[in-house]
Structures are given as C-alpha cells and as structure tokens.
Design brief:
382 residues, alpha/beta, three-stranded antiparallel β-sheet, binds pyridoxal-5'-phosphate
Amino acid sequence: MKKERNYLPEQYSRTAGLPINHNYLRQQFADYAKILKKIGRLAQEGDYTLGKQVDEFEANIRKLTGSRHAIGVGSGTDAIFLSLKASGIGNGDEVITTPYTFVATIGAIVATGAKPVFADIGEDYNLDPALLVPRISARTKAILPVHWSGLPCRMDAILNIARQHHLSVIEDSCHGIRAYFKGKAAGTFGLCGCFSMHPLKNLNVWGDGGYIVTDSDEIYKRLMLLRNHGLADRNECRIFGYNSRLDSIQAIVANHLLQKIDAITKARIDNARLYDEVLREIKQIIIPPRRPDAVQVYHLYIVRAERRDELQKYLLKNGIDAKVHYPVPMHLQPAAKIYGYKAGDFPVCERTCKSVISLPVHEFITEKQIKTVAKKIKEFYA
Ligand SMILES: Cc1ncc(COP(=O)(O)O)c(C=O)c1O
C-alpha cells in the first residue's frame, strides 16, 4: 500500500526562507530558555495532564476575558466540538454558520452529528446577520458565528435573532483573542466562546491547544466532564466523554506568552493601520470596511485584490509570503458534497474566496517591510 503523505513538513519548508514571512515563531520564542526552565520543573513534578499550570492558565483567561469560567482543552476544534456537545447539539440538529472559515469550524459541527447550514457573509467577511433568519428551520439549534481574522461579528444582531428563535450561540473566536465588539470581548457574547492556541494564532503554544469561556455554571460543569472522559474522579464516570485535555506543557507556554498578549495585539493593530494607509492608494486593492463598533485584532490581514493569483505569485517571487485564506469556500469543498450546495449559493463568500490575499501582519513585521510589500504591489499593477 502506498504510504499516505503528511503534507505539513513540506508546507512549512516551502515558504520558510522568505524574508517577509507569515511565520514569526523563532522571534516569538527567542526567550525559549525561560519556558524550558519551567518545563524542566514540570518534568520533576510530573503532572503533565491537566496539571496545576492548567488551573493557572484558566485563572489567567478568566481575568483576561471577565468570564465566569475558562476550560483548557486540546485544540480550538475541540473547543467548538465540546461546546456544541455541552449545549446538547447532536444528530439531526442544524447549526447555522459561515461558509468563509477554516474547515475546523465545519468539522466540529459535523463531528457532533449535526448539519452545517450556511448563510452568506457581508463585505466585512463575517456572517451577515440580515441573511440568518431565512436559514432557520425547525431543526436549527444554534448559530455559530466566526470572528474571522479577529474582527468580531455583529453580535448584538446575532444575539437578538438567537433570542427570538430560541437558539444557542457558540462563538468561534479562534482568531479573536483581545478583540472587542461595542466594548465587550469577542467570545463572551454567546453560551460559549471557543479559542485556538495553534502555533500561528495571536496567542500560541508549542503544538495544539485551545480553551472555552462561558458564564454558564451548567455548561462549565458539563465541559469539565466532557474534556476528561466524563470522570468526576478516578472511579466515577458521570457521562461518557472524550480526551481533550490541555497539556501542562502547553499551559506553561501559554502562561508565558499571556504576559505579552497586549503588546502583541497592539503591534498587529498598528501594522494593519499602516497597511491600510499605504494600500488605500492602490485602486486594484479593496480594503474591507473598517467597523467603528469593533476592535479588530488582525490574526490575519486580508484585502481583496484584482488578479489575485498572479499578484500572489509575484509577491512570493519577491520574497513576500502572501497567502490565501482560503480559496475554496466550505460549501464547495468535496467533503460538503453530501449537503447539496452548489456554486452561486453564497455569492459574496465566493467572490471573496476568489479575490482575497493575506499579507504578513504579525508583531515582528517592521514599518520598512510593510512599505516594501506596498511598493511591490504597486510595481505589480504598474
Ligand atoms: C476559524 C478557525 N476555527 C477553528 C480553528 C481550529 O483551531 P485548532 O487548529 O486549534 O483546532 C481554526 C484554526 O486553526 C480557525 O482558524
């Protein structure tokens, strides 16, 4: 049998040498010796799974978000899946979400047995609340907004619809740490807010990790069981659950980086503002509307571009790691065939996927590099 390919090592190395890069992890963890020292201590103590560092991490997240509860889990995907499960969503239910997201949002819905029902996005790349109501059926149980690229959805409108139709709201806030909508933290509007700490997120660990925030005592209790086999203690299994524990090692890394999260967020916002300023004069580039009701934290800096694919090739050739998040909408993925969607169903999303380009916006990009990116884009269109 032919061995299946792990495509990730090749994907990592393909753009690793580009001088203006999306990846900044070497700089991010230049002080790794401090983290290793703490991991060394963990090796002496040995509480690797859900150790006291996880408790400390959860306390830090409660403080950061103002949520009553925070629960560390294995990944952002698990955060969404477990939140849906804890809300009672399963076989035969429908969950309304965006077709413009990473596959994990949809995979998490499908893993519960529920059906993902898509609604189109607006020009800000997020779910358009005005398009939600026609997608509600007798089977709809939840709305799952995604705060794409770190821009919070219009949560007031979404919560109103959810209230009127008795639906739960589970937020995919995997891009949304420190983002705000009308002064309230992204991830704290719905029943649960789900966050990822995957290596290229704004708060990242050395592998996979995620967390959930909730104000509901009942959901919290269920999540604490679900993430650890449903065990109330060593010998009592209250509900059959899963293994989705945040590793103590990852909690150590996260606690270390949390001390810098405000500086990270500020640098990304400043970088995005500079990009906006220098790209605004290029007529082939469309910057999405910048919403005054939100603090956007720019996990990604995404604009629309004419002749996107050619521009991406040109930038890559010139040492700039331009990426596309993502070229194929969720409803047109091969995995979604069973749901019967077709091209043309969500025109704004489809137009967006054909034209978006992401430029490196992380905290280590310099002003000079941003200006170089703009110069190269101008050169391409000249
Ligand atoms: C929008 C979105 N949702 C969910 C996830 C899943 O997070 P994780 O990779 O931690 O499982 C990701 C990221 O990778 C994401 O970008």
